Structures are given as structure tokens and as C-alpha cells.
Amino acid sequence: MPTFTWRATYDASKTVTPTVKVIKFGDNYEQRQGTGINRQPRKFALMFKNKINVIAEIDAFLAARGAIDAFNYTHPGQSIGVFVCREWVRTNIALGVDGLSATFEEVYE
Fold first, then answer.
1. What is the SS3 assignment for 49?
2. Cys-Cys with 8: which of 46, 51, 60, 82 at CB 3.0–4.6 Å?
3. How many domains does the chain have?
4. What pLDDT, in 10s, does the model give residues 94-104?
5. Whether 102 contacts 93, CB under 8 Å
6. Is residue 5 part of a domain?
7. For residues 73 and 83, is the Cβ–Cβ distance under 8 A?
């Protein structure tokens, strides 16, 4: 499996949305139950700013997978995971410098 090796330029945000079934009862009581064994997938919002050729490499890596094929990614201070990138935005910042923002969503295969 391919590995995403570039490091984000800016601090990234990490979002975790546990998968939970909630049953509501009267008087605002509720019962919660986790679903599945992989209940807390991670999502990272990453931003890159670099020379055009480096951003082009990142863009090409993501485009080659086309939100279908997963890749390995290790966020600093986190464990390795399998991710997909369903959307990314490339911007022209200055002469010779581009930016790219992407969201990596952890998947289980």
C-alpha cells in the first residue's frame, strides 16, 4: 500500500466522531451503545504550502488514488492508519508557491 510521506505545513486539526447508537426514552433519558470494533475513526484537516513542484507531487499522489484507493499515513504523534482523501483544494499563493488543503479520513479495509 502506498504511503503519504509529506508533512503538513500548518498545524492540522484532528476530528474524531465515534459511531454510537442512541436510544431515547421519555423524560430525556437515553441509552448509548458503540457500534463495531473500529468506533473512533480519525479525520485530519491538513494544509500544505510549498514550491509548485512539491505541491504538484502531493496533488498527483491524491489524484492517482482518486478517493478510491487507500494509503498509509502517520500523523506526527499518532499511530499509522489507512486513509482516503475524498477532497482537496489546490491554490496559487505566489510566484513559484502553491498551497493545498486536504482532509484525510481513516478507513478500515
1. strand
2. 46
3. 1
4. 999 999 999 99
5. no
6. no
7. yes
The tens digit of pLDDT for each residue in 45-80 reads 999 999 999 999 999 999 999 999 999 999 998 999
Residue 1 lies in a domain: no
In a domain, 76, yes or no: yes
- The half-sphere exposure of 27 on its side-chain side, counting CA atoms within 13 A, is 0
> How many other β-carbons are positioned within 10 Å of the β-carbon of residue 23?
9
Structural domain boundaries, residue 39: 13-106
Cell output for 63: 489524484
Asked if 49 and 97 count as a contact pair (C-beta separation under 8 A), the reply is yes
CB 103 within 8 A of CB 45: yes
